[in-house]
């Protein structure tokens, strides 16, 4: 979903969601920020559950430390109910202290240990346990037994290993589309899950994309990064923009998708750098060919 783009409205968001649901895509993903112009992730999740019927809904990612864990568990269980069990919850510690401060959260809690503590509370809620003295436990019960699957959003091996005890996989991101580097992180996950005695992890990566004539598409990515990475000095974003994300034509995108598939990616999330529906239409054509 193009949630980090400016000038969004309900019609545009609904049209994107319906087009993804009707298209060749396997999931619909979006991220969370607080001190930004994007829609609230949990409110949008309810709308997406109502607007779609088929695709999985994947949060990439929600930061538990920005929410009360019991209320977050309740909201996610509600979304799992509304979507008929189509929810996957990507969570991470986030990368911006300003979001913590805006939400009234302590930036000192931006740790994997603090996130794991909140995950444990959420799983207790989803299991129907009482988290305090009450007549009934916090509901509703999620449609998926034990709650929606949790995947960790990270690019770091240490963080990934620490999540093996509670996560079902990885919701990664590649800044420079280095397939070998991404596969190294996949291998870390495979080993960590094996050592934890768990089944093979779900492995996903993502990247910013723009389809079009190369210079115009690359500039589209650049403009998006300047808006989105507004906590980083603009000169640094300008320096990284030429090699961050992906820009090119349909054949080139198809080749990129196949390269990540070859190293075992279960899903590849395409992050829009424009809310133009034509970008989604063109991406759908590529994915149709990719999934044949």
From TrEMBL:
Superkingdom of this protein's organism: Bacteria
Lineage, uppermost ranks: Bacteria, Bacillati, Actinomycetota, Actinomycetes, Mycobacteriales
Name this protein carries in UniProt: Flavin-dependent oxidoreductase
Classification via Pfam families: Bac_luciferase
GO molecular function terms listed in the Swiss-Prot or TrEMBL record: oxidoreductase activity, acting on paired donors, with incorporation or reduction of molecular oxygen
Luciferase-like domain segment(s): 14-248
């Amino acid at each position: 979903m193009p949630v980090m783009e400016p000038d969004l409205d309900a019609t545009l968001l609904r049209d994107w969601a319906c087009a993804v649901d009707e298209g060749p895509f396997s999931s619909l993903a979006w991220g969370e920020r607080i001190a930004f112009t994007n829609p609230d992730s949990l409110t949008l999740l309810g709308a997406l559950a109502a607007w779609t019927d088929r695709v999985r809904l994947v949060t990439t990612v929600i930061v538990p430390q920005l929410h009360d864990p019991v209320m977050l568990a309740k909201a996610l269980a509600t979304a799992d109910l509304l979507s008929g069990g189509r929810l996957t919850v990507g969570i991470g510690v986030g990368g911006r202290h300003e979001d913590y401060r805006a939400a009234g959260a302590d930036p000192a809690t931006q740790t994997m240990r603090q996130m794991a503590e909140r995950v444990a509370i959420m799983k207790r809620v989803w299991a129907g346990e009482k988290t305090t003295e009450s007549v009934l436990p916090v509901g509703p019960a999620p449609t998926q037994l034990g709650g929606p699957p949790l995947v960790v959003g990270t690019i770091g091996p240490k963080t990934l290993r620490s999540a093996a005890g509670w996560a079902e996989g990885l919701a990664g991101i590649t800044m420079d589309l280095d397939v070998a580097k991404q596969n190294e992180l996949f291998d870390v996950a495979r080993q960590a899950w094996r050592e934890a005695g768990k089944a093979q992890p779900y492995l996903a990566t993502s990247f910013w994309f723009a389809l079009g004539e190369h210079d115009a598409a690359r500039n589209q990515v650049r403009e998006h990064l300047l808006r989105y990475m507004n906590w980083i000095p603009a000169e640094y974003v300008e320096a990284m923009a030429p090699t961050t994300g992906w820009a090119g034509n349909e054949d080139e995108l198809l080749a990129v998708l196949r390269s990540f598939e070859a190293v075992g990616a279960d899903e590849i999330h395409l992050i829009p750098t424009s809310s133009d529906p034509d970008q989604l239409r063109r991406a759908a054509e590529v994915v149709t060919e990719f999934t044949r």
